[in-house]
Amino acid sequence: MTTPVVGDQALVLSGHPLQRCGGWALTLLAGRDDAGSVSAADIEDVAERVIDDVVAAATAAKDSPTYDWWKVLFALYPNSKPTHAKRPRESAVLRESVAELFAPDDPRSPLLPCTFCSRWCGTLWSKSVLPMFESIRALNTLPPGVAGWPICRACRVALWALPYAAWVTAGSATVLTCDDPAVERDFAMKNVQRSGRIRQLGFVSLPAGRGPEAVVLQALREHAGDAGGATTLWAFKNDNQEPWLHTASTRLGVARFLRAVRANPDCHRGWAMLKKMMRRRDGSGALVLDGSTAAARLLFDREGHQGERLPAKLMELARDPDALFQHTLLDWRALCRLYLEVMYDMETARLRPAASLLADWIAKEGTRGRFNEFRQAVTSPYNLSKLLMTASARLFLDGGKQEPVNHQFAQLCTDGPQGWRVRGQLYFDVMAELINRGVQVGKPGSEELSEADDADQRPGTDDDEDGYA
Ligand SMILES: [Zn+2]
User: Fold this and answer.
1) Are residues 327 and 200 in the same domain?
2) What residues have CB less than 8 Å from 394, skipping those under 6 apart?
């Protein structure tokens, strides 16, 4: 059993991602900066506000924007009184049953430590009022003989304040945990503003194609310390058939990488171009995925997948270099290189001999044949190894200065994520060498970028996309 909390701090942020997000919501709704300064009176006030909003949503007409907040509540607490299909429609009646949820403990109840923060408390909650507990199998079984989860009053209010600080959709909620509280706070604050908009104007009022990943990157860029920045996004989808929990994480160093991108004009332009190319619209021209979100996702590792998604995506988008401007190829080379240097401490200069050898070999033939051969081979460790042998032997026989190589490029020819990263960089390095030598790769010139394309990288600006605030 955990040790019960002693002391009079009204609210404690636990390690549980949902309680933690709810704790941030409670803190921010109370106008406080940190959980430690939340008072008992603050909890009272926030509980009143939550009750008002729940009752307004649960008694709203189905076609009103306020009803969208009910959909959010339904996704989180599908079997609670205010989300039940047979709930009372008179505000005063419903209010009474909602208010009961947050009432002070009955002094006669036996005391138990709170499930989340270990404070002594006397109220047991069933899973029907706990967010997502219906759908998260791992959390929804109680030990035999236990009538419910003991939850203290602060945590009860926090668990229903949760949707204010989570990234919510009509059927899911996403919360953030980060090793740096300033990043969590910023993410929660943005969501408090966003959820206010949903309650007033409904989901239609939100910019299309936005996801939480772009908001997290912005928070990291602006608020994380250089040493920190490891985040996890926990996305919950509540569905009677197939509920899920997905996690996606950024690694340490990502905040440093984002700031380095902003400080380097080539990388900055490269990132803006990436956003532009990843933006998706449907047949009618409506935005379905904004570029900031799509590009941000490349820096998140999904559960069970080791991501090398940024170098891999850049390589994929540059598969046909002639469809791109030379400037973009050079910018992406800089971006890829910065990523490897910051995130993996890799000395990218080590690739110079291989890039120069391949560029010599490609440039010696006037046609595109050799470049295309390289382009095919670079995706496979085996084929690239063969090509390096062939190229160095050919240059040697032709009287060039190269010695035949057989061990120097071992790193390029390994399988797995490291091999991918290194070969991605080599691909861009070779193209840069060719461009420098005047070999025609990519379109001459550079592409115009709109202000929206690089909006999220200027300090203090909001991450707007297509004019959305
Ligand atoms: Zn508690």
Assistant:
1) no
2) 361
Look up the pTM and report it: 0.88
- Tell me: the pLDDT tens digits for 65-91? 999 999 999 988 888 899 998 898 899
| Domain assignment of residue 369, given as a range | 306-447
Q: How many angstroms separate the alpha carbon of residue 172 from the centre of ligand 1? A: 24
- Look at the alpha carbons of 169, 174, 180, 185 in this order and tell me if their dihedral is positive or negative: positive
Do 219 and 131 sit in the same domain of this protein? yes
Average pLDDT over all residues of the chain: 87
Q: Over the stretch 401-427, which tens digit does the pLDDT of each residue have? A: 655 554 556 666 676 767 788 888 999
115 C-alpha vs ligand 1 centroid, how far in Å? Answer: 6
Residues 6+ apart with CB under 8 A from 341: 347, 348
Give the dihedral sign, CA 39/40/41/43.
positive
In a domain? residue 369: yes
Helical (H) or strand (E) element with 233? strand 231-237
| Rounded distance from Cα 131 to ligand 1 centre (Å) | 15
Q: Report the DSSP beta bridge partners of residue 120.
A: 113
